[in-house]
Amino acid sequence: MSFNTFGHLFRVTTWGESHGPALGATVDGCPPGVPLTEADIQPWLDKRKPGQNKFTTQRQEADQVRILSGVYEGRTTGTPIQLMIENTDQRSKDYGDILQKFRPGHADISYHQKYGLRDPRGGGRSSARETAARVAAGGVARAALRALVPGLRITGYMVQMGPHKIDRAQFDWDQIPENPFWVPDVQAASDWAEYLDGLRRSHNSVGAVIEVTARGMVPGLGAPIYAKLDTDLAAAMMSINAVKGVEIGEGMDAACLTGVDNADEIRMGPDGPEFSSNHAGGILGGISTGQDVVVRFSVKPTSSILTPRRTITIAGEEVELITKGRHDPCVGIRAVPVGEAMMACVLLDHFLMDRGQTGGQRGQIG
Amino acid sequence: MSFNTFGHLFRVTTWGESHGPALGATVDGCPPGVPLTEADIQPWLDKRKPGQNKFTTQRQEADQVRILSGVYEGRTTGTPIQLMIENTDQRSKDYGDILQKFRPGHADISYHQKYGLRDPRGGGRSSARETAARVAAGGVARAALRALVPGLRITGYMVQMGPHKIDRAQFDWDQIPENPFWVPDVQAASDWAEYLDGLRRSHNSVGAVIEVTARGMVPGLGAPIYAKLDTDLAAAMMSINAVKGVEIGEGMDAACLTGVDNADEIRMGPDGPEFSSNHAGGILGGISTGQDVVVRFSVKPTSSILTPRRTITIAGEEVELITKGRHDPCVGIRAVPVGEAMMACVLLDHFLMDRGQTGGQRGQIG
Amino acid sequence: MSFNTFGHLFRVTTWGESHGPALGATVDGCPPGVPLTEADIQPWLDKRKPGQNKFTTQRQEADQVRILSGVYEGRTTGTPIQLMIENTDQRSKDYGDILQKFRPGHADISYHQKYGLRDPRGGGRSSARETAARVAAGGVARAALRALVPGLRITGYMVQMGPHKIDRAQFDWDQIPENPFWVPDVQAASDWAEYLDGLRRSHNSVGAVIEVTARGMVPGLGAPIYAKLDTDLAAAMMSINAVKGVEIGEGMDAACLTGVDNADEIRMGPDGPEFSSNHAGGILGGISTGQDVVVRFSVKPTSSILTPRRTITIAGEEVELITKGRHDPCVGIRAVPVGEAMMACVLLDHFLMDRGQTGGQRGQIG
Amino acid sequence: MSFNTFGHLFRVTTWGESHGPALGATVDGCPPGVPLTEADIQPWLDKRKPGQNKFTTQRQEADQVRILSGVYEGRTTGTPIQLMIENTDQRSKDYGDILQKFRPGHADISYHQKYGLRDPRGGGRSSARETAARVAAGGVARAALRALVPGLRITGYMVQMGPHKIDRAQFDWDQIPENPFWVPDVQAASDWAEYLDGLRRSHNSVGAVIEVTARGMVPGLGAPIYAKLDTDLAAAMMSINAVKGVEIGEGMDAACLTGVDNADEIRMGPDGPEFSSNHAGGILGGISTGQDVVVRFSVKPTSSILTPRRTITIAGEEVELITKGRHDPCVGIRAVPVGEAMMACVLLDHFLMDRGQTGGQRGQIG
C-alpha cells in the first residue's frame, strides 16, 4: 500500500474527488482471459449506491461504471483496467460553509495542515464517495476469483449498530439481502430500523460493526511476515473511511481467552484437516488454513450531523458548526459492500502472490 | 509491506529463524547523520529479552545486537544498516515432537500447507523470536526520530490481561517501567501478578491488550488513501505474532457512539488547535492532527501450553499434543516493546514520506 | 517500476489501448500547491501529436487532455491526478489482417504467448500510443519541477538518424524547435529530410538516437544502490516502445576510454565544484553531481513497413505480411518529447525521495 | 527497485561497505523447496573473487559466504535467506588520503553532497565490493531457476576491451572459461593480455563491454509497460558500478538499421516459432519470445589510477591526487559474473511474477 494504491500483484489505484467530474480505479495485474463487462461490476455499485432508502444519503448518483481499457471482446487482456464513474450530482452549494470551517470528526483540519490547501466540496478526496471506486475494483476481483477459486463466497453483513449486537443464535445467511442493514438476524433488522429512525430524527448518527466472511477458502494464502493475510486485511479495512478498529477471528476478545479455550483443535476429516472452532478467523501465522476467513471492523458514527458542534476556522476563530448536507445516519450500512470489495481484492492479490512464489502447490496432509 | 519488508521510505526487512545461527533486520532509508551505536539499540532489546522474570520464557538469549553496516564513526551514512543478533541458545531438543505434529494455534499447519516444508525448530520463521529484529529496527527509528521530531515520546503499556482491564482513573505514566507488566496502574500490577501466577501453575495462558501512545506528535503525517497513518499502524500491529485486533482511538467501541458523542470539538489554544476529546486517536482522514496517536492491539493467549490438545500429524493421524518448551504464560507482556518499535518505525517512515511529498510545510491556522 | 506504474514517490500509472475509448495516466504523489491546468500539459502533447508533418503518421488524433481529479481552483491538492485523453480516431479497419498474423518486430507474438489473447487493434496496449499518457504525466512533473527546482531545463533532441550523426561542433540549442526532427544541427536537419523522404517512398523505415539533457541540475539526486539516478533513467528510457539501448554520459563508448581520459577532473569555481569534462553524464555512484545529466537512447526502425515480411499465423501457417496502416518512417522523431517526459518524471521523483530521506540538505564544499 | 532492494517477487536487498565487518544480501521471495547450500553459491563468488591473476586487484578476500537463514536441511523454506560475507582484509591505511580529497570519477563528491558525510574507507557503500553480495544472491537465483526453468543457461563474457572487439566469426562458447577475460575468442584473449599489461604498467586503466546471454529461454516473461523484461534488465545492469550503457539485442546500433533489415522474420519450426535473426535480443514489447535474451553493458575504465589527476578537497582547495590502493586495470573483467548474477535474478523474478499473474499458461501457436 502506498499513497493511493493497494495490492502487490493485483494493484488498485483509486482516484477522484467527491465533486469532481469523475472518480475511478486503475486496476493493474488482473489475470488475462477473465470474462468481464460492466454488467459484472454494476450490481456491486448498485448495492453501495446512495439514496436507496431513508437510511442512506439522499444524494442521487447514477454510479454507472465504464470500462475504458483492459478488456477486449468481453475478456480481460492482462493490461490495466480503467474503471470510471462520472459524478452526476455535483451540486456543491450545501458545502459553502465548510470552506473556512473545519468540521469536527472530518479530515478538513488534517488535510489543511498537511497539504496547505484542500478541495472542500463534499470533503474532496477524503469523502466516502471514494469507496465507490473500491467497490468497482472489487467487482473485477470477484470476476477473477470466480475463475480461479471456484466455490469461494465473500459475504459482508452488519453485526452491531450502536450498542445493539445481533443474536448469533439467530444467524441466517439468507436474511442478509432481505433488509436495508444487510443483517443476518431478522429481529435485529426490525429493531434497528426503529432505533435508527429515532436517531435520524434527533439529528444524530451512530456507529456500527461490519463482519465479512470468506467461505470456501483455499489454504496457503498470505505472505509472512509483513504481508500476512491478516495484515493486509487489517490495512485494507482500516483504510476505509471512518473505520477505527479491525478484528480477525476472536479479535479484541482474544485478550480474554485462555490458551486452553483459544486452541482450535484439529481433526482429520474426509477432505482434509478440520477444526473444532475458529478463534483464529481462518488464519494462522498470517497464512490461510482453509477455514472461513472472518474479519470485522467498526465504523464510527457519521461526523456530519445537524446538531451544532464547536470548531474553529482557518483564521483561528472559534465558531459553532452544523454540517448540513445529505448524510447517512449510519455510514456503516454502506460500508458493507466496501468491506466485501476489499476482501475480494486482498484474496485475489494473495492468490496471485502465492501462485507466483510457490506455484500454488500445497503441502500434503494424510 | 511485502513479504518480509515493511515501510515506504524507511524500509525494514527482517530475516532469521528461531533456532538458526542468527536473525536480524536490514534497515534501509534511514536519514544520514543520525548518531547511532549499538548502545542506542541494546536497551530496547533488553526490555524485550526473555528470562527476566517468572512471567516470561526462561529461554536464555543474550540478544546482543551488532551493527554490521551503515554507520561510520558513530553516525548513520544513509546506506543500509544491518542489525544482527546471534542466537546463542539454540537447543532444539524440546521441539523434536512437533516435527510431525501440528501444534494447535500455531502456524505449523499453515506453513506446511503453503510451503510444503518448514523449519520446525521453535516455530522457525513464525516464532515470536522474529520480533527481536523489529525491536532492533525500532531502536534505529527512535534514534532518527529523536533528531527529527524533538519532543516525540512513544510509550507502550498493557491495559488488559484476560478479562482484567486497568482503571483509567488510576493511570500513571510513571508506574509503567516499575512493574513486570508495563502497566500504568499500580493496583492492576499487583492483582495481575497473582492472576497470572495461577494460570501458569495450571498449565494455561492468557491474552492481553497493549496500548501504544505517541505524545508530542506533529500534524500532517499519513499518506491517504491507502497508506493512511492508521492504515499503516494497523498493518504494523497486526503483523506482530498472535495479534488478532487493532484499534485506533475509540476502536471497536466507536460503533457504540453517537455522532454527537464522537465529535472531537476543536478550540483555539495558545499553540494552535486544541481538541475537547480524542475519540479519533489523533488521526483524521488518515493524517495526524497533532493530538496523541493512540493504538491498541490484542494478543491471543500463548498457544504453547502444557495442557494436552487434540491435533493431527502430517500423515493425517489424530493425536494429543502437549507443547513442551519454555514459554510465556502471557506473550502480551513482551509484545509491549514490539508495539513501541512498530510505532516508531511507522512514524519515522511517514515523517520521511511527508517531507518528501510536501516538504513538511504545514497549512497555517490562525 | 511494477507492471504499469513507475516511480517511487511520484508515481505514474498509465492505462489504455491504442483503439479503446480513451487512455491516460494516474499521477500519484504530486506535491500539493503546484499551479496546474490543462494548458500546462497540452503543449507537450501537441509536440508529440501525430500528423504534424509528412514524417509522422497521418493518424489524426486531437490528443486533448482532461484533468479529472487532483486539482482544485488551478492548484494541485496532493491527491491523485487523473489525466484522460480520449481516442477520437479509432478506425480499426486497417488492422483486420493482423488479428491472425503476428507482425515481425511487433509484440503481437509475445503478447499472445504470455496472455493467451490480445487486443489486436493497432497493437492494443503495446502501441506507441501509450506514450501520449507519459507525455501528459511529464507535463505534471515539469509543472512541479518549475516550482521546486528553478532553473532546471530538460531538452530532448535527435543526434542520429540511421547512420547519420549530428556534427557536435555545429550544436545549437536554438535550432532544436526549428525543424521537424528536433535536431540541434541545421545542416543535419536538411540532410535528414531528404534521406527520410527517400526511405519513406521506398516503403522502409529507419532507427534513431535521441539525447535528453537536463541543465541547471541540483546535486544529490539518486538513491543508491538500486534506485540510482542512472538506473532509474535507464529503466525509464528502456521502457519506451522500440528502445534498444540506453547510455549515460559516455555510454557504450566508455569502453574505449582509458582511466586517464575518463577522469572528469574537478576544480573549484565561484559557485562550487566545476568539472573539466562530463564523461560521467552528471552522475557519479548513482547520484547527481550538479553537472548536466545526459542520457541517450536508440530507437529501432518502425516495424510496420509496407515491404512484405515473412511471418506465421496463430494457427502456425507461414505467410507473408505487409503492415498497412498509418505509420512513421522514423518513430524516433516522436520519441523526443517522450524521452523528455520520462526525464522530468524521474528527476521529480528523485527530488522528492531525496527530500524525504535527507531533507534536501547538502554536504558543504569549501 | 528502491534504495537497496531490487526485484518484485524475488527481492534482493544488499547491504554493507567495502571495509566494514561484513556485507551481504537479504534474499526474499525465493520459492520453497529449492536445494541450496553454501556450495551452490560459493563457485560464483570464487569466479568474481579478486586476486586471482595479475589483471585483478591484489586485495585478498576469502569471500566465503554463509547462509544465516531461510534454509532448513539443505532446502529453501520460502522465508528470507540471509547471505553474509565477512570482510577479512579490511586494511584501510591505503585510503587515508581520500578522506578529505574527492577522487575524480568516483562517488566521493556525490555521496558527500547528498549525505553530508561518507564512509571513505575503500569507497564505503559505493565500492564495487558490493557486487559480491549480488553474485551471492545470483547463486540463489540460479539454484531456483535450475528447478523451475530446466535447460536455461546464463553466460556472461567480454566482447570488447578498450577499442578492441571480439571477432564474432571466432565466437566459441567453450573458450569463455579458459582465459582470464571470459572472452569467447581465443585470439582476443591473447591480444588483450598484452594490451592490458601495457596499460597497467603505464598506471592507466581501460573500459570494456560485457555481454550476457540467456539460452534455453521460455516465452512470456516480462511485465509491460514499466516492468518489461528489457526495462528490468536495463535497470539491473545500469545499477552495477561503473556501467554507463546498456543494450538489448541490436542495442545502440538499432539506430542504423532500416525496418527491412531489422524485422526478425518468423517461421514455424518443429517446436514452435523460429526467427530468422535476433535483432530484438529475444524480447518484443517487453516480453520474452523464447529466443536467446542478449544484453550488453559497458563498463568505464577504473577511476582509481596511479596517474595524478586534479581535484578538490572538502574545504574547497584544488589539489592533485594519485589514487593508491590495489585496483583492477579493467574492472570489466570482474563485472562478468556480476552481469550473470543480475540476469539470473531478473529472470527468476519475472518467472515468478508471470506465474503469479497468468499461471504460466501460454497462448498456443499452431
Task: Write a structural description.
The structure is a homotetramer of 366-residue chains. The two termini of chain A are 38 Å apart. Chain A has one domain: Chorismate synthase AroC (Chorismate synthase, AroC fold, 4-Layer Sandwich). With 366 residues, the first copy, chain A, is an alpha+beta fold. The first copy, chain A, has 7 helices and 18 strands. Helix content of chain A is 26%, strand content 22%. In chain A, the strands form 6 sheets. A 5-stranded antiparallel sheet of chain A has the order 1-2-3-7-4, with helices on one face. A 5-stranded antiparallel sheet of chain A has the order 9-8-10-16-11. Chain A has a two-stranded antiparallel sheet with strand order 5-6. The interface between C and D is large, with 123 and 123 residues.
Please name the defining characteristics of this protein.
5-stranded antiparallel sheet, Chorismate synthase, AroC fold, homotetramer, alpha+beta, 366 residues, aromatic amino acid biosynthesis (chains A, B, C, D), 7 helices, EC 4.2.3.5 (chains A, B, C, D), globular
